Fold this sequence. Notes:
The complex is a heterodimer of chains A (352) and B (531). In chain A, helix 1 packs antiparallel against helix 15 and helix 5 (102-137) packs across helix 10 (208-245). Chain A is built from 16 helices and no strands. Chain A has helices at 16-44, 49-54, 60-69, 76-88, 102-137, 142-156, 159-173, 185-188, 198-204, 208-245, 248-256, 260-288, 292-297, 303-312, 316-344, 346-351. Chain B has 531 residues and is α+β, with helices and mostly antiparallel strands. Chain B is 32% helix and 22% strand. In chain B, strand 4 (81-86) and strand 5 form a beta hairpin. Mean pLDDT of chain B is 91; it is low at 1-24. At the A-B interface, helix 2, helix 3, helix 5, helix 7 and helix 13 of A face helix 1, strand 10, helix 9 and helix 15 of B. Chain A: This is ABC transporter permease subunit.
Amino acid sequence: MATAIKTGGRSRALPFAWKAAKLLASVALTFLGLLFVTFLIGRVVPVDPVLSVVGDRASQSVYDRVYIELGLDKPLIQQFWIYLQKVFTGDFGDSFLTKRPIMDDILRVFPATLELATFGVILGTILGVPLGVLAAVKQGRLADQVVRVVGLIGYSAPIFWLGLLGLLIFYAKLGWVAGPGRIDISFEYDITPATGLLLLDSAMQGKWAAFRNIFSHIILPASLLGYFSMAYISRMTRSFMLNELAQEYVIAARVKGVPEWRIIWVHALRNAAVPLVTVIALSYAGLLEGSVLTETVFAWPGLGQYLTNSLQNADMNAVLGGTLVIGVVFVGLNLLSDLLYTLLDPRVRRRG
Amino acid sequence: MFHKTKWLAATVASFTAVAAPTAWAETPADTLIMAWSIDDVISLDPAELFEFTAGEIAGNSYETLIGYDPMNVSDISGKIAESWEVSEDGKTLTFKIKEGRSFASGNPITAADAVYSLTRAVKMDMSPAFILTQFGFTADNVDQMIRQTGDYTFEFEMDQAYAPTLVLYCLTANVASVVDMKLVQENEVDGDFGYNWLKTGYAGSGPFSIREWRANEVVVMERNANYSGDAPAMARVIYRHIPEPATQRILLEQGDIDIARDLGPDEITAMSSNPDLVVEDGVKGSIYYMGLNQKNEFLSKPEVAEAMKWLVDYETIADTLMKGRVTVHQAFLPKGFLGVLEDNPYSLNVEKAKELLAEAGLPDGFTVTMDTRNTPEVTSLAEAIQGTMAQAGITLELIPGDGGQTLTKYRARSHDIYIGQWGPDYQDPHTNADTFARNPDNSDDAASKPLAWRNSWDIPEMTAKADAAVLEADADKRAEMYIELQKEHQATSPFVIMFQEIEVMAHRNNVSGFVIGPSFSDNSYAMVTKD
């Protein structure tokens, strides 16, 4: 899914307008390609979408009617064309399953994933970057080994298993956090849905009891996702930092008597931050696709569960809609990290 | 996809043992909270809904004309109907509606609502409509056939004199629920019969009303203040979508839910010894079977089909792998139905199977494939059968797939063996006879594609017998006919019928009164109390 588009960078001779047009064209092509491939996969999957609509018991006449209603009698390329035309007018179609407009469904499930992923990636970054720096500075020593082993567990332990374990310990035994779900039933109707991000909604409405409840629900799954992104971020930080610490400017700084903390946290980290931004953005994008397993264990009504369910039922409109959302997320985060590049890297900035 | 291994289950079990219930939260005293995998709900319109979960929701929020006692299904009584009469020629039923009752909205229930509901379902012609249209109704004729004759009376005229029990049982199905005509019509847009509103809305008269449904998240039911029966003790009943059984178990042990509905053998065993919890079960109508495609050169030999019936270790599977989830049953009608055959003549007998294979000219066995849905229970069942088949030299290759995949292949008749489940659509024996023992047209483009068709089993004579049973007015004679039909089917059919499903749930010990009926729409929580 990593259809990253790299823009900016070496194209210094091009005027701004040309650059923008090129960017737009490549974004449009990416989406077109993404949609087409997803569409094809959905049609090649040996699952009959009509069955998921009418069920196994419907009579042949009902089956035939729905088959035509879904447009499945038309050639594949024509089906895709019809779909594209609708998308361009802002109509993403209805879900075969829920029979509601796809965008309504996605607007309902995406905030749950967004909230969880954002929380997770913030935790992962806050912990992962300092740990990575620490490991690089203490390379080969105990602290490095500890950070690497913690990262390795994050890499290799099944998230499903860790999630259940976390529930048993922190929810069932210690009672520190609330159980699966986003919010307790008793608070559910206290807050009026606005953004769909419950933490934000409850805070804006000043419902602090509800806020605490929501927080105690999200903290465990968010920590779990945070742990996983921390494993990745700390490992990458470590290798970027090792690379920077071996550079001549570090030796020069040391010769000049710059304090060691300044060399590490200001000079080296500043340079390591450039590639690190991409790593964090990719990690964030990965979480935003929705972690199916985490969402299943924690009964989290997010995008991952929605897409998996749609895919298993060959609900193509839903799958395509979800793919578009994920595509937008990836492209958006790529643009954002490019933007951050120009802020962090003076060489890129001057060319701009 | 991500089913737990034994290792995982063991870890969870050991940690739960350590995790003795400290301070557990309690659910509100007037609210019943259930955890259930409810991602199969696609509609709440009785004319469309057909899934187990939606059936149960509708069963507790809508009323049908006729009902039966869930403990004794032959005891049929009126719910919305007060009485009914069958005409001389057996083709017309005249119903009288109970007076003075009303819908949750406050609108009175009249014959107009009943007629509207039945004709609406026929005209909309969604998945479950065949339960009504099998009596000869079409969108064009239904307004003449089902007609109001007074404020509280209407007539129901069919194309043939069907067995009255068949008609009455069909009228107990969710599709025959009586909807609030006035309310539905107020929400009608462009002649859609209010469907776009009702698929997520509510217009019924049952003990509970549906307040909210958020797909893959929650269904909230509320006590219906206008219900004419005894008011339920619970003010609210909440279904939470919790897909993972291990998560349901943790929630139940913590007291954050009252009832857990999806439990595997591991969970059941662990919960049975917990004094705070009660495990309850009830026999459901669903049947586990293997379908042997007669297009396959080996499977089409009658001796092979019989040999396979001797190559399943029924008892051991029911006592270990599927403990508490199934009971051995080898006829196409489930227990609890009129005319059920309760003989289970087959058991594991490798010698006998080998003799039969030799008779078929296959003393060294053969190789076939079996399409297996990748759920843990069907997979473990298939693996056990694979083991016993191998003892007689039959190599069974399992092809895993998800529900949609295996079903698509099955309906295209491109399988060798299909292993799966079949649940009855309504409480009359015809529902299963229609699919297991009828195949009016075995051609590839047949209009109806029952299970017999899917396995290419061409049976004109048996089809005629099943058709005759539908028209037998005498219930005792009719039961005899079904017993005969099942005996013949058991001996000769390419269906290895193995088990009948048991529904298991666990609840906290302060909850009582949940009725587990023979079908999901009979499951009732109107009488549930908590102390």
